[in-house]
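re: ur question from yesterday

yeah so i grabbed the chain u mentioned. its 874 aa long if i counted rite. heres the sequnce exactly as i have it in my notes:
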Amino acid sequence: MKNLEKNYDPKQFEEKIYERWKDGGYFVADNTSDKKPYTIVMPPPNVTGQLHMGHALNNTIQDILIRHKRMAGYEALWVPGTDHASISTEAKVVEKIREEGKEKEDLGREKFLDEAWAWTDKYGGRIKHQLEMMGCSCDWSREAFTLDEHLSKAVEEVFLKMYDDGLIYRGDRIVNYCPSCHTAVSDAEVEHVDEQGHMWHIKYPFVDGEGYIEIATTRPETMLGDLAVAVNPEDERYRDIVGKKVLLPLVEREIPIIADEYVDMEFGTGMVKITPSHDPNDFEVGSRHDLGQCICIDTDGKISKDYGKYSGLDRYVARKEIVKDLEEQGYLLEVEDHDHAVGHCERCKTTIEPLISKQYFVKMEELARPALNAYKNGELKIIPERFGKVYANWLENIRDWCISRQLWWGHRIPMYYHKETGEAVASRENPDPEVYVQDEDTLDTWFSSALWPFSTLGWPEDTEDLEKFFPTNVLVTGYDIVFFWVIRMVFSSLYNMGELPFTDVFFNGIVRDDQGRKMSKSLGNGIDPIEIIDQYGADALRFTLVTGNSPGNDLRFYTERVEASRNFANKLWNATRFVFMNLDENLLKDLEELELTTEDRWIISRANRVSKEMVENLDRYEIGLAAEKIYNFIWSEFCDWYIEMVKPRLYQDDVDELARTQSTLVYVLNNILKMLHPFMPFITEEIYQIMPNKKDMLIVEQWPEYDEKLNFEEDEKKINLLIKAVSAIRNARAEMDISPKKKAELIFVTEDEKIQSALEELEDDFKTLASTKMIRFTDSFDEKDALVVVLDKLKIYIPLEGLVDYQKELDRLEEDLEETLFEIKRAKGKLSNKGFVDNAPEKLVKEEQEKLERYEKMEKEIRDSIEKTKDKIK
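ran it thru and got these structure tokens back, copy pasting raw so excuse formatting
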């Protein structure tokens, strides 16, 4: 019968198999079926992005879940798609046209958008192809893009509804502003970097000339916009000065001292300068005290007009000038070093400037409440639970959401203004192009992706997909976007659909390098998943990413672990080849027709139990534990134990024995392929194609359901005893350097009749697995010339006569001693060398000390063995 190729080479079949799945419609979900639905929507990567290890991990987890549910009988739908990534894509297109000597404004909006679409068309398919290489079984017939016509319609619908409900307003608020990209950016697009800076202590004199107060700031350039100094109303130190006025240095502006609970009495002097136009907290304080606004830094990051010689200077140039002038005029009291986190634009790395700006906002208080309640009352489950605190904390301290962006690539805000009166109208279309002009801004990318779980299924139309597959079941995403995306999807769905978008949120960790660092371009430590696939295959990468990891925890990526995963695939490949080389399809029978042995019942029972435990793990999102279960079962129990146990049976002429053995091997191998398939889909599908009595393709095979009738506990106990005993015997022989080729007698001493009965039954296995020529039972045994293995209620003796050449063993030990003494002398010499100890790296010195300790311990053990061996010779 047909067998696998001699060598495991994933390049020979991975791409072909994926094409068969895709072309055969195996990923397509049927919205008319009677099956229970199971839905996942893919977190949409940037349309022009390329696959990184974070995507690889996240999508592997989703694929494992979707493949398992598909095999478990669900109508499984995994919706793929991409995000237009407004600021990221626009930044790349602006960079491209600048290289061509053009500016965005020179092209005009329409031509610029043509360039953006051309860029998207050129690079947009890259990440889709890479996800296919990973083996992602998503329904590409339902692929979505946030700028698709029906998704754009959904965005428009939600904006107009929110506007009509009074949830969207236009106003002046503090936003994160990038002076380089010239747009407001969301919190998700701000990277906070620890920087070494300074804290400047500045003298603010009282207007009446009676002394001064001391203010500390990390940004002296913003003092130009100070409108007050605040203290805590409970701070007794400053009660007498509340209401007084101080003179703002350099500007000569009189500003009041106000009392506000925002001020932390324990931090610094307990006094803070209030700059309402350039700090979100100061803005709130300013609003409470009617301080007004004073913009001192413009959208180019320069000092605004009316500030004399500072006007027009870049904010950092102005800082130097201001500090110099403060010092010269006697206002600078102290400068101290101060490390702090500074926000940078994720795209261009420019330092973010908090600015007051006229933007569109969503009122969040009303929307946040039901999203918080859904978590608190247990409707929304967050895995792992610790991230629930982050979710709740963000919603409890929510601010209004700035949704407008000063960009052209994206969903244009559906607001129109009367050219003469300025009247604002929210509308799907321009009410009158002669009279009204549309707002120039686009909506925040997160506004459209917040609708992703239902807009991708056809909303606002009442589609069959929406009826069948919404709400979805689980969202799998990185914990770094818990606030920005997950929360927005939850409140958007509750607001528009009246129900949660999903019941579970599973947060995966970050893939770090082998030193535990986050992968980044600046560190140059990023690893391309596609290169790993080219070298080791997609199955090896997938299995590496999910093993040894628990929900929400970061994982370190080692190439050695990928090699280990490839070795695992290779082991399964070779085990399968062995089975097929010893297979006669005509002998195969159903389990019910066979008279099974203890070994057969054990492996069948273990496969049955592993299937049940894996389902429990997967339902709890313990992906790593499920992977570990199937790995151990295949590598150890099936390959290392069961196949080795039954090899002698495969070489017999007894037809019944051959039928029993081959049928059990095929039955267990078939279940192995099914259980491993979600994790390593390619190799399992390739093997399945040559399995006897195969049905269609493995991807739509039925998951092995737990069957109580196949639960053989007594047989499991017997084989567990065998494995413990054989392992202990092998270890004892290895310690004495006894070759496996030398057959020994085994003498069992036990008072437990059940144990003795099991050992008698498994005599042939001991002969096969433990280099045994004969087994006997006795009540006691003189252990002087024997190895002894002690287990629970059992002692095993291995007589050494004929197994060990004691003189040869003594010669070997004395050689080992000589080598060890040489290493001790070398290490001591090195450590007594002052030049080495003082000048070598601390790590090297420590390693040498550890070596010396190790060799000294070995010396003692070898000398002990020498004395024992000499006694045997006597």
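noticed a couple things. Residues 842-873 form the longest helix (32 residues). also The chain has a mean pLDDT of 93.
anyway ttyl
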